[in-house]
Amino acid sequence: MRIALFLSAWLVCLSAVAAPTEPATLDRSTWPEQLISPVLFDVASRAEILTFAHALLSSEALDERALSQRLGLKIINMDAVDTVRQRMWQRLLANYNFAQQSCDQDASFCYYVDGMDSLREQAGKFEIAPDSFYVDWAEPSAEFHRTYLDEQLRLAALFPQIGSEIELFSDREFNGGGMNDRLFMLTFDSGPTQLPGTTDWLTDYLRKQSVSATFFVLGNSVQARLDKQSVQALQALYKGQCLGVQGWEYRSHSHWTDWQDSIVRSSALVKKVLPDNYVPLFRPPYGHRRADSGAFFEAQGMQVALWNIDSQDLAGSLSAEQSAQRVLSLMLLWRHGVISFHDTQSKVRSALPWLMKATAQSGLGWQECSALAQP
Predict the structure, then answer these.
(1) Which of the residue ranges 15-29, 47-61, 86-100 would you say has the lowest mean pLDDT?
(2) Is there a smaller number of Cβ atoms within 10 Å at the N or the C end of the chain?
């Protein structure tokens, strides 16, 4: 009976899902200025915030049926959508307030905003004049934010039937939303790669940049490394970095009978061979985890580490540079948070250096990985 009920619920869930659109990306070369100072970071940030706010406001004019059609879904959770929209507005207001602190040095995209009403008013009338210095950026950015907004609303519309990073299930979970302005954390999923591989290149690159990151590893991939190299070699690989887990293998932990064992086994292995790097964090593959899992993670002394800036580097339609450009656009929009890459993707060899170079003079900071376990 339990199996039948599970299959029934799963089929209902699948019936609500249509194929998603291609992930959003924005050609940053359309923006006419390099982010060579904190002030210019703020200018670009204000522009992205207002463009996204305009898209968000416009979406509120759609009724449930029209929104379902736009998102390509048969069934949507409007309560979750409304909750996510309200949280987005609060974040946009806080971010715009941070971004307008430099308006006395550069007044571009500085408008009177002293609260939610005025932000919504400015968002509603926001547009770029045909003769503007920023006109080549305007339409590509508008399209990026419409597409990105649909990505987020789609996740909300399917929540909690399909778990994702869009919302938290318990106080054992976090997604970087509470981080300080201009502070970002790099994370990498589903490694380590086979020897030699991108993981080897990536950890070496990060050490040379004096940056630490959190690597969410798979137990079976760690074991595969240990079958071919010594514990000391694996410790040298991750020197200066932090290690959380994604379970024993890369699969959804929301409907997997052995999901608890998957987490316990992988955590035990990492703690045994890499005790100086281990942090008690679980990154759910695909963002899928059980809604009632809070008690388990509390008993394990673990937290669920989600993200709020997704590189979409798994998408075959995005090149390495497009993935990096997407991340930069979302950094300008959200102004802080946890960035998700996959070190199993060779794209990161190009995407990460591009991102580091593009932001080197913009006044942002890279959070030490050990702080990720202390939200």
Answers:
(1) 15-29
(2) N
Report the sign of the C-alpha dihedral through residues 144, 174, 192, 365, in that order: positive
Of 70, 26, 21, 81, nearest to 48 by C-alpha is 26
- CA–CA separation, 36 vs 102, rounded Å? 14
Q: Answer yes or no: are the C-beta atoms of 38 and 362 closer than 8 Å.
A: yes
Per-domain residue ranges for the chain? 31-158, 173-373
Identify residue 31 by its one-letter amino acid code: W
Distances (CA, A) of 373 to 48, 242, 283: 30, 10, 12
**What are φ and ψ of residue 84, in 5° steps?**
-65, -40
**What's the DSSP call for residue 180?**
P
Element at 309 (helix H, strand E):
strand 309-310
Residue 346 contacts residue 21 (beta carbons within 8 Å): no
CB of 35 within 8 A of CB of 362?
yes
Q: In the numeric block, which tokens belong to residue 159?
A: 């929540």
Q: Topology of 173-373 in CATH? A: TIM Barrel (3.20.20)
Mean pLDDT to the nearest integer, 205-233: 97
pLDDT at 373: 67
Question: 305 with 282: CB under 8 angstroms?
Answer: yes
Total count of residues recorded for the chain: 375
Enumerate long-range contacts of 261-268, CB under 8 Å, 24 or more apart: 262/219, 263/300, 263/302, 264/300, 265/219, 266/217, 266/218, 266/219, 266/222, 267/300, 267/302
Please give the distance of CA 331 from its chain centroid, rounded to a whole number. Answer: 10
In terms of Cα–Cα distance, which of 243, 242, 263 is closest to 251?
A: 263
According to DSSP, residue 294 is labeled H
Is the pTM higher than 0.90? yes
Which 3 state secondary structure label does DSSP give 253?
A: coil
pLDDT at position 374: 63
Short-list 200, 243, 250, 241, CA closest to 220: 250
| Structure tokens, 109 | 């995209």
Query: Pairing between strand 183-191 and 278-282?
Result: unpaired
Q: How confident is the model at residue 79 (pLDDT cuts 50, 70, 90)?
A: very high
